[in-house]
């Protein structure tokens, strides 16, 4: 049984979260707290395995509480966020402080919205309960190549897929990379609003120009294209160039956007000049697409288990031999540059 402590200033949300989580046979809610101070005492008394934490809290905001928690008693935390710009910004900051994942509060009380929220909540709490919470590996900033090798990057494409833990993993991967990198396309499992904030956040912290894809953009070096949170991102060929395209089709592997959808489009149009990277995440989305890329001539990399928050997606890829290489997160940037400059 995974013991959960629910922290939310709304009595209604505490009751709702408790009811939804207790419906799963593998989860038991051992306590509820309306503010971080009460939560601090209940953590000492109840020793929960996982916390659900509202991002906006009275007396002490969720970020301050999370910062103290990760310093004094690190443990898996699933943030419960509002689908607003402020909620997105705060949640991304929480993930950088050590939160494992987040669920977006339902927009309304319609049965379908509540059912989807419950499924996501249970799914992520169960995954969080399996995590051994250790300090993250140190980030090693890799050497950047000289500008005179930029011609070797021509006609290359990098495709990245991630889920749980991916927001920080993607930033760790991209931050050391140079501004003359080939175009990068990314699918991260993330809801709308959050994907916009994620792109803005990455753009501030990277040498590359990071945008949320709108569809129809020509893929150009030095640019990163993030899938929006409510559509699949694919690439298509347009003469001698590639462009982004957004699909409003059904979810694949439970997800929209789906990593498999992106990877399969890269396999179809650019496999022999592409590099595929699958990072931390729950489930198996992206593993078949990565295998498709490898079989058609791409070089493929999976994040290793030790550096993954959840080794579901990369682990599934490794299991079916979809990866040419399995690497710690902090080694992928340098490997990427090696591949780009020697080939």
Automatic annotation (TrEMBL):
Matches recorded under InterPro entries: CheB-like, CheB_C, CheY-like_superfamily, Sig_transdc_resp-reg_Me-estase, Sig_transdc_resp-reg_receiver
Gene Ontology annotations for the cellular component aspect, listed alphabetically: cytoplasm
Keywords assigned by UniProt, alphabetized: Chemotaxis, Cytoplasm, Hydrolase, Phosphoprotein
Post-translational modification, as annotated: Phosphorylated by CheA. Phosphorylation of the N-terminal regulatory domain activates the methylesterase activity.
Protein EC: 3.1.1.61, 3.5.1.44
Record-listed 4-aspartylphosphate modification sites: 54
Residue ranges the record marks as coiled coil: none
Residue ranges annotated for the Response regulatory domain, each copy included: 3-120
Compartments where located: Cytoplasm
Record domain CheB-type methylesterase: where: 145-343
Family affiliation: Belongs to the CheB family.
Domain remarks in the Swiss-Prot or TrEMBL record: Contains a C-terminal catalytic domain, and an N-terminal region which modulates catalytic activity.
Protein role: Involved in chemotaxis. Part of a chemotaxis signal transduction system that modulates chemotaxis in response to various stimuli. Catalyzes the demethylation of specific methylglutamate residues introduced into the chemoreceptors (methyl-accepting chemotaxis proteins or MCP) by CheR. Also mediates the irreversible deamidation of specific glutamine residues to glutamic acid.
UniProt cross-references to HAMAP family, sorted A to Z: CheB_chemtxs
Name of this protein: Protein-glutamate methylesterase/protein-glutamine glutaminase
Lineage: Bacteria, Pseudomonadati, Pseudomonadota, Gammaproteobacteria, Alteromonadales
């Amino acid at each position: 049984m995974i013991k959960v402590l629910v922290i939310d200033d709304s009595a209604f949300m505490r009751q709702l979260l408790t009811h939804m989580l207790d419906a799963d046979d593998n989860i038991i809610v051992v306590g509820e707290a309306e503010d971080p101070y009460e939560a601090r005492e209940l953590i000492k008394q109840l020793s929960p395995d996982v916390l659900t934490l509202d991002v906006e809290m009275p007396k002490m905001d969720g970020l301050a509480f999370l910062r103290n928690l990760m310093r004094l008693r690190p443990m898996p935390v699933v943030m419960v966020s509002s689908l607003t710009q402020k909620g997105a910004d705060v949640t991304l900051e929480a993930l950088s402080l050590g939160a494992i994942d987040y669920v977006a509060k339902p927009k309304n009380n319609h049965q379908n919205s509540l059912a989807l929220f419950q499924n996501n909540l249970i799914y992520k709490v169960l995954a969080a309960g399996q995590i051994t919470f250790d300090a993250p590996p140190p980030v090693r900033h890799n050497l950047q190549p000289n500008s005179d090798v930029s011609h070797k990057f021509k006609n290359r494409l990098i495709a990245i897929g991630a889920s749980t833990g991916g927001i920080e993993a993607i930033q760790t991967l991209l931050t050391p990379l140079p501004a003359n990198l080939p175009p990068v396309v990314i699918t991260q499992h993330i809801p709308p609003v959050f994907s916009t904030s994620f792109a803005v956040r990455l753009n501030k912290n990277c040498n590359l120009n990071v945008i949320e894809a709108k569809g129809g953009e020509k893929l150009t070096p030095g640019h990163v294209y993030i899938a929006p949170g409510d559509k699949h991102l694919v690439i298509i060929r347009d003469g001698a160039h590639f462009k982004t395209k957004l699909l409003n089709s059904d979810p694949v592997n439970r997800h929209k956007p789906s990593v498999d959808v992106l990877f399969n489009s890269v396999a179809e149009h650019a496999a022999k000049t592409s590099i595929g990277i699958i990072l931390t995440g729950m489930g198996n989305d992206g593993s078949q697409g990565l295998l498709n890329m490898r079989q058609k001539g791409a070089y493929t990399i999976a994040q290793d288990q030790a550096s993954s928050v959840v080794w579901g997606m990369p682990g599934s890829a490794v299991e079916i031999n979809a990866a040419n290489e399995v690497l710690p997160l902090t080694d992928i940037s340098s490997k990427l540059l090696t591949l780009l400059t020697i080939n």
